[in-house]
Amino acid sequence: MATDMADPSSADVAGTEHLTLEDRVELLRAMLLMRSIEQRAMNLYRQGKVPGSFYDGFGQEAVSAGAAFAMAAEDRLCILHRDLAAHLVRGVAPARILSQYLGRAAGITRGRDGNVHFGARELGCVGMVSMLPDMMLVAAGMAMAFKLRGEARCALTWFGDGSTSRGDFHEALNWAGVQRLPVVFVLENNQYAYSTPLDKQFAVNPVERAAVYGGVGVKTDGNDCEAMFEAVREARERAVSGGGFTLIEAVTMRMHGHAAHDDMKYVPKAQVEEWRAKDPIDRQEARLTELGVDVAALHAAVNAEVDAATEEALAGPMPDPADVLDGVFCAGPAEPLGDGRAPWSGWAG
Amino acid sequence: MPQMGVSVAEGTIVAWHVEPGDRIDADATICEISTDKIDTEVPAPVTGVVAEIVVPVGDTVEVGTVLARIATGDGAAAQAAPAEPQRARANGNGHAAVPEAGPAAVERPTRHRRYSPVVQRIAAEHDVNLDEVPGTGREGRVRKPDVLAYIEAHAAQAPLHIESPYRPDPDPVPAPAPRAAPPEGEGLSRMRRQIGQHMKRSLDTAATCTTWIEVDMGRVEAARAALRVTALPFVARATIAALREFPALNATLQDERYTRHDDVNLGIAVSLGDDGLIVPVIHNAHELSEEGLAARIKDLARRARARELTPDEVNGGTFTITNPGQYGSIMATPIINLPQVGILDLEAVVKRPVVLTDSDGNDSIAIRPMTILGLSWDHRALDGALSAQFLAAIKRHLEGGLP
Amino acid sequence: MATMTYLQAITSALRDELRADERVLIMGEDIGVFGGAFKVTDGFVDEFGTDRVMDTPLAESAIIGTAIGAAVVGMRPVCEMQFSDFISCGFDQLVNVAGKMYYRQGLAVPITVRLPSGGGFSGGPYHSQNPEAWFMHAPGIKVVAPSTAQDAKGLLHAAIHDPNPVCFMEHKHLYRRIRGEVPDGVWETPMTARIAQPGSDLVVIAYGAMVHVALEAVADGLDGASVEVLDLRSLVPLDEEAILDSVARCSKVVIVDEANATCAAGAQVAAVIAEKGFEDLDGPVVRVATPDVPIPFSPPLEQAVLPGVDRVREACRELLAY
């Protein structure tokens, strides 16, 4: 069932039969927005305006952009820290994201949590916790509810190669297999868990574990947003038609350190250079340029949007410490997750 | 518990140096105590065998309370140590006891009473003196039900005119004290309370009057600079000389018994900072020179602040000098340290323009180091003329040199 | 209104919820066909089916984690830990995911975790624990601990209706020993303390099984003393008003925990009294709790560490005499 990895050197212009040109531009736009916001945030971090630490997904933009693009509005996502494009695809405004990084009142968690720890409830997203594969079980639980209620919906979550060593990874795959749940697990294999390389993390590639737990394992090119889209689209179709879970290994590379403080000296330079040539944005731009898309104009539009968002975020107030004790408990009725934005043309019909 | 100065009413056992059964020589240290004014060792009053330790370490008891019993002679008798014998009572373990003085001694609690927060709060709300409340808790502890019962039993019925049909409305129930309200100021330390009581008693008892005199300190300033000491020992020396001339002020007045003393036992008030002050006494001060006085004052002040004074060193004063002058204040009305009849106040020495008259009767204005000495004296014991003469004598000694 | 045991009251609450609210689902190990290790859900699958009375894999983290997922998409999962001891395997999901979710992103997690707790029957170190204080310390989680059949039902309804994660501490020792009149249908017991026995000389503060130990300890009147027993019922939120009210009236306090003493629920109660009830105290706050040891297996060892009637009575006598 595993698909072969696309040749990263070829500027494949065929795309998939399920994507219109507008979809493909939208994918590029999501990746550009992610990169632009994260570069801006890293600058703000270095200027001392972003507190705490800062984590980005530089070089991994295709994984979240492509996967989120395949999800329907009523699907639910648990988004991890290198998957900013998923938030953007679901419809989170860049200014809210930057406000979040800056610890501002207008951030998604209103300053309660930092950096990439957020999920916009009204857009059907659940924020991550730092115990990374925890959200696999939450996603499985959402899928369990969909199945119990007979709904044609799907849950999806991302996690890294390091997460595959923890018990919750195994409990989630097992549970999803036992109950044949409509859930998609995206294993973002970016070669390093902080500084730990793959050969110290597992003896058997985790994607091969899917089958033994009763699901389907798929290996795909995590630096190709269209390949990611297609893998997840297929996995979602399998999920909602009763075919159970899919574990997609998105092969990619973490091009920055674990966080802003990490110079990743432990990564060989040659490895970085090799992956730089496979940059997911460059690849999508090459495709679209060949198809006559004005990529420079897209760049300019995205940069202008992020400029405005940065300005808005910086102008926003910090949260009021007088409210810091509010909201530990929910006092009113529980508001469930809402539906997110689903820009893929396939949802229009 | 020995009396450690006039104002001390109680003391706390810090340590025992002996155990029951130990032999102890008279004057050997038997225990250490702490009072409001000093911490000190207590010497055994007699030689003998320790029969019983009555007051354990940490307990605070009133002055006069028996601390321990020492069996003397052939071990047939137990002597209370070091309190007055009439406070002793039978110890019930075979030793013959000194006869009882009365039932009060029998019932007197030997343990300082401590009260729980709720008992203290209720007592404060109802203005109850807890010392009067019988305790039914462990070791006579006053419990909440005890204080409530006391209040109920003592709730005074306002007497009404017997013919009147009128009965007043009951008092409105007072609102309960707000929980966790911030305390309004801190309670006074025991030492402050004792000082306050002592001073108030003085003002209530003595017919206090204050007289001032201005003194040219030029000669003293030169002399004290040479000896590298303060002006205090010079003033002390001049005062001692004046006291010898006017023994009416080197005196004590107690219960209308007025006693003049030959020896000058000079008290010097020493500040203990925030804690309060203490008045160590230089016994036989008339035998000391300025230098000797300076050395004694320095030593007593150091040991007072280190809480190392012995009981004798704070007792037996016949006159007191207080010297807050180092901060620049120029006049005060000191309160007499009863049962003494006079106290001299030395304030700052300040350079002032003064009119000098030479032997030819020519006046000139000169800058001189001046001070104002204040004498509070007890009008019950003496009169103003004597006080003025006494002050004049001090002035003379300071300005003209000692005889 | 029917007379039922503590266990039957829990069963009644679960059954009434399943009947009344289609969002409610019960998840746990061996709870379906088998009816649960303590037979709380005996016969449930026949009425509600295996989807709503779900036998799960043996994976506590997964039980809590999937319950969280189901809850945030609109379900009202009730998780059963077979023994409260096993919640340690689900600790991370409960504390880090469920407990902090609403504060971080406004997403409520209405899950109930039933925790059969407590010792007294040679369960040994892994079937006797009282882990409630672990969760009192974690923000965002409510903790309730009924002592009577009526409260077992009423608090379980309240827990299931609550939009927050709730740990429902059900004491195994009470399951079949305690019975009482329990109203039918769906209703709630408030998460506040109740006075199990009024008094004015001393108050024993307890919860769960220790309420009964306290009631028995003071049953003979303790030499005529008037002893109050305050049943906390809820540990988070903690009914400070009721605690301080009892302390103000009685002024002497004995706090009983079956849990290990250090940082137990009773330690928090003692702290509240020290902080806010100091001026009402007429003696030291006395605690009776299990010493800080794993619960031993052999009966004489276990009885030596668990707070019993005699220890509580002795503590009350001592404090009354103070």
Summarize the entry for a quick read.
The complex is a heterotrimer of chains A (349), B (403) and C (322). Chain A has 349 residues and is an alpha/beta fold.
Largest sheet of chain A: 6 strands, parallel
Q: Any idea what the shape of chain C is?
A: globular
- Overall 3D shape of chain A: globular
Helix and strand pattern of chain A: HHEHHEHEHEEEHEHEHHH
Strand order within the widest beta sheet of chain A: 2-1-3-4-8-7
Q: What is the makeup of the main sheet of chain C? A: 7 strands, mixed
Which percent range describes the beta-strand content of chain C? Answer: 15-25%
Rg value of chain C: 19 Å
Total DSSP E strands of chain C: 14
Mean pLDDT of chain C, to the nearest integer, reads 96
Task: Give the SSE layout.
The complex is a heterotrimer of chains A (about 350), B (about 400) and C (about 325).
Chain A (H helix, E strand, L loop, with lengths): L20 H26 L14 H9 L6 E4 L4 H7 L3 H8 L23 E3 L6 H15 L6 E6 L6 H13 L3 E7 L2 E2 L2 E2 L11 H4 L3 E6 L3 H16 L5 E6 L17 H8 L3 H11 L4 H21 L34
Parallel strand pairs in A: 1-2, 1-3, 3-4, 4-8, 7-8
Antiparallel strand pairs in A: 5-6
Helix pairs in contact in A: 1-2, 1-3, 1-10, 1-11, 2-3, 2-8, 4-11, 5-6
Chain B lengths: L9 E7 L6 E2 L4 E7 L3 E5 L4 E6 L6 E3 L5 E5 L4 E5 L21 H5 L9 H10 L17 H10 L36 H16 L2 E9 L1 H10 L4 H14 L5 E4 L2 E4 L5 E3 L1 E2 L5 E2 L2 E2 L7 H16 L13 E4 L19 E5 L3 E8 L5 E16 L5 H17 L3
Parallel strand pairs in B: 12-16, 16-17
Antiparallel strand pairs in B: 1-3, 1-6, 2-5, 3-4, 5-7, 7-8, 9-19, 10-11, 12-15, 13-14, 17-19, 18-19
Helix pairs in contact in B: 2-3, 6-7, 6-8
Chain C lengths: L1 E4 H15 L3 E5 L15 H9 E3 L4 H13 L3 E5 L10 H15 L6 E6 L14 H5 L5 E3 L4 H13 L4 E6 L7 E4 L11 E4 L4 E5 L2 H9 L9 E5 L2 E3 L3 H11 L2 E8 L4 H12 L9 E5 L8 H7 L3 H13 L1
Parallel strand pairs in C: 2-3, 2-4, 4-5, 5-7, 6-7, 10-11, 10-13, 13-14
Antiparallel strand pairs in C: 1-8, 6-12, 9-11
Helix pairs in contact in C: 1-6, 3-4, 7-11, 8-9
Question: Main attributes?
Answer:
heterotrimer, A: 349 residues, alpha/beta, six-stranded parallel beta sheet, two-stranded antiparallel ribbon, 11 helices, 10% strand, disordered N terminus, C: 322 residues, seven-stranded mixed beta sheet, 14 strands, 38% helix, 20% strand, globular
